Amino acid sequence: MTEILKEMAPGDKGRVRGYTPGSSAYRKRLLAMGLTQGTEFTVKRVAPMGDPVEIEVRGFALSLRKDEASALMVDKEDNHG
């Protein structure tokens, strides 16, 4: 199921699908942080107001601001089963 990262909850796992249209301001930066298409990650924490979101990706913790998280389209993995 395709979602936006900021809509995911702690414990959710996913895979980077791509970037939202109009996200070019953040795309280059997110790519430099290792968030390339197909990269798997786990949501670790979400601040009370949703900013920032902490994910574990490629063995390290990465905190993303709300605007950065909004730019990232992801495929959420089914946690059931």
What does this protein look like?
With 81 residues, the chain is an alpha+beta fold. The protein has two helices and six strands; from the N terminus they run E-E-H-E-E-E-H-E. It has helices at residues 24-32, 66-71, and strands at 2-4, 13-19, 40-46, 53-57, 60-64, 72-76. It has a six-stranded antiparallel beta sheet. Strand 4 and strand 5 form a beta hairpin. The mean pLDDT is 86.
Supply the key terms.
81 residues; alpha+beta; SH3 type barrels
Please provide a brief summary of the model:
Helices cover 19% and strands 40% of the residues. The chain contains 2 helices and 6 strands.
Write the layout of secondary structure elements.
Elements: E1 2-4, E2 13-19, H1 24-32, E3 40-46, E4 53-57, E5 60-64, H2 66-71, E6 72-76
Antiparallel strand pairs: 1-6, 2-3, 2-6, 3-4, 4-5
Elements, N to C (H/E): EEHEEEHE
Overall geometry comes to: globular
Distance between the termini: 16 Å
Count every helix, treating DSSP H or I runs of 4 or more residues as helices: 2
Major beta sheet summary: 6 strands, antiparallel
- How large is the radius of gyration? 11 Å
Q: Low-confidence spans: pLDDT under 50, at least 5 residues? A: none
In terms of DSSP E residues, the strand content is 35-45%
SS-based class: alpha+beta
